[in-house]
Every structure is written in structure tokens, then in C-alpha cells.
């Protein structure tokens, strides 16, 4: 069990990444935190294949999480299927629950657009 806060654990996850993945996750985190000052950071899904866990952001329920894949960084919105349609969503489009955005090397993070999606997710959780 870690003595570190969830935010400190997310700091560590980002610090372990290199290059474009490091930049992408750091940029996504900054966009999420800027969009919702009341967002709560959490680390979930710790397992042997991913002992560091997965960074999550919550506000009255799960908002989104970031998973670092082999060739992408995926931002998944937990209730994305209930959110307004966005051209940013490019994966998990057939899911009845979530929607995701895969960032690959060379992708840029549109912090304003991500912020709008976070605001939509917060509104859905406030229900």
C-alpha cells in the first residue's frame, strides 16, 4: 500500500513515461484540472500487469481516465455515450457506456476542447 496521495501517484505515473506519452498525459491532466477546479484525482485498477494503476478523475462520480497503451494514450469518458456527440471521440464508439479518444505520436491535445468534454461529463454526473 502506498503512503502517497492519489495525485502524487499520478505524478509518479507521468514521471515514468517518456517522450510524447509523457507530454500527452501531462497535457490531458492539465486540461482536466483546469476545466474543473473541484475534480478529484484517483488511481484505480492496480493489478499485476499495471501495478501503478490508472489515473482517474471524478466529480460526483467518475468523469474520465487515461490509459497508456502500446501505441496510444487513451482518454476515456466513463459516461461518454450520454455526452453530446464530439468529433474528438475516435474509439469505443460502439460502446453503450463509454467514449474514448486515442492520442498517437504526433497528436496534439486541444485543451479547450477537452475542457468542454470534462464540463459535459460533470453536468451529466450532476444529473
Automatic annotation (TrEMBL):
Stored Pfam families: DUF1801 (PF08818)
Tree of life domain: Bacteria
Protein name: DUF1801 domain-containing protein
Gene3D superfamilies documented for this protein: 3.90.1150.200
Domain YdhG-like: 22-122
